[in-house]
């Protein structure tokens, strides 16, 4: 199956490559040509799509989410974190079945597609049924275990790691723990053994709130980053989600251990956690990706909002309008996301890369005039501009329609789950 | 001409009125019925629109913008304010004709319509041609003079005040000055005379940056708010745009003089001006509205982004996730906006009010499940949800299409202006 996109403004996201007008071909799930039209090979195409000057670029990588929390959107806003977790979220999650989680994840996937997201890193309750939802819907997904003292067991974690990794080309599984404050030391020591057995990176919520960091220092005399490092949990690299309250010493450890950061600016604002030091991370050379976090703490799953916030909040945090310019943000949302998800064959548009591609509509008022496309995307772009989302060579969303999906059925099933959990 | 909207979830924005399912009728430019279907009068309707459970509510009031700056979108991002103004904006504005401003304003109006904006308060170079653009496109607009020491003269201001106010039912004109730092004291004293002659409120950029406030204190020994008050400029009320760096004493003056605030959170972030004390304003009882500011300092004209930022930034500023809940933000974007624009007949949905109405699509993934509609709109809503925008009884935007407008012609004319000014 071959598809040809022509008359496109192509933003490959390769270092130092300018936007050019040309075409892109895919065959099955790979990109087979990116370049000028005059050099393009001929061929039998299933579809030839006139892009009419619209932008073709790599899809956005949403590096941290809890998709199944769509059930709780707008249910428990404007609350303190502890109220929210203990009184609203945990009791309802206790009632959520694997099948519920599957349906709720499908609802989230619809929204990802409207926002140009072509892969997610998802930490939630039942990885098996999340994987099923992703495979059924065609979404690329790195599952991450959210292990903590309430479950699952290390045996379950190890089994999932072996069973879910490579179960389907769209699905991966990463070793992760929920957070320092939801694990005791012995559990973390045992996770460290597993990390060493598989030489695996570790993924974890870390330094999200000041309270979390202060309490960890109270318990162990160390920041969460230093504490995890002392247990060998970062010996094979990894990623911390949030990273709002890291110290200079933390950043040195992160550099030494190759630990990236996924920033979730909308969630950090809404829960009053703080503003992450993105400008500092970039200056230190730490890899930063972007995540939406879950739809109960954000509440949208909208990479355009996150991209705007990354740069705008960096500017006000540093009181410097030059901080974190738009091209850096686009790199975080694409290339860096691919690195942090260990999917570097989705990072740029190039021959042989996986066909995870989006088309952005420039013929809309918010994208006019076209003076600087990366700046247009980051500073004035929005979901409405997503004209097409292709994952693994398949067009899943185009001109507001979802291919082969009964949207009403998903809405109705998700509402039924929500009624049950309410 | 009568139009009937039925099967609608109706959010009237009246104090203490819950959302209900019913219908709304318009005749010419007024609302003639809002209520349950069983009580609705029959009649000959030009159109009957099945809203399919979507939300009907008052349109958003964008209380501060410089529409014509669309020419400069993405042209001069990531710069210091002085660089931006002196090297990028002012030299280009010097070359902008009234006709240019007319075309650039039309481009902005297209974007307002996609964002559910039904009225704007616009401070820019050539009010006459901005008014023409608004009348031609059907946009409600309160023009505001941006008088400063470079122009125009007080005579021109007074003439515009008399000629443009009431020139067309869609158009009003307010007395305003650009800012304290662009006016000398004598000029402000003369403006004060005019304010007193017409018993008019005053509109002004104020307390946007810390530098501005510090320099005013250096010049006059007073904050900008206190200085303007000392000149009698606030004797008939008014509005300050931005209000990021006001003091407690300023707020007392504002309360006494009935001065509202228009907050422009995206612009304040991007230019690294700061985060306005919205929570404090609300607690003091000061009326707060929302503006996008111009498309060169934002860069979008998107009320959904602004609404999210108002609440999210208040939460992180106060380090309190309970600060400024969603219903307060919706009130700012509608009812308060109408108050600050002195258009209280556009504030809510009720019989006799002007028909400035939007329909929001709830059948999209980001609006599901429907647990709390105001929260859905503020926390996860986006431009894509705007299904229809009606101003003064006329549907100007519906299902992604602009009624009776040659969009390509506007894009092409705006691009030509941009090339000339580049």
- Overall mean pLDDT of chain A stands at 96
- CATH architecture level-2 label of the largest domain in chain A: Alpha-Beta Barrel
CATH class of the largest domain in chain A: Alpha Beta
CATH superfamily of the largest domain in chain A: Metal-dependent hydrolases
What is the tally of helical segments of chain A? 14
Q: What structural class results from the helix and strand content of chain A?
A: alpha/beta
Q: What gyration radius of chain A follows from the Cα positions, in whole Å?
A: 21 Å
CATH fold naming of the largest domain in chain A: TIM Barrel
Most extensive interface, chain pair and sizes? A-B, 71 and 71 residues
Span between termini of chain A: 45 Å
Topology:
The structure is a homodimer of 422-residue chains.
Chain A: E1 2-10, E2 20-27, E3 30-35, E4 47-50, E5 55-58, E6 60-65, H1 81-93, H2 98-114, E7 117-122, H3 127-137, E8 140-144, H4 154-164, E9 171-174, E10 176-179, H5 185-198, E11 202-206, H6 210-220, H7 224-230, E12 238-242, H8 248-257, E13 259-263, H9 265-270, H10 278-284, E14 288-290, H11 303-318, H12 326-340, E15 357-360, H13 373-380, E16 386-391, E17 394-398, E18 401-402, H14 407-421
Parallel strand pairs in A: 1-4, 1-5, 6-7, 7-8, 8-9, 10-11, 11-12, 12-13, 13-14
Antiparallel strand pairs in A: 1-2, 2-3, 5-15, 15-16, 16-17, 17-18
Helix pairs in contact in A: 2-3, 2-14, 11-12, 11-13, 12-13
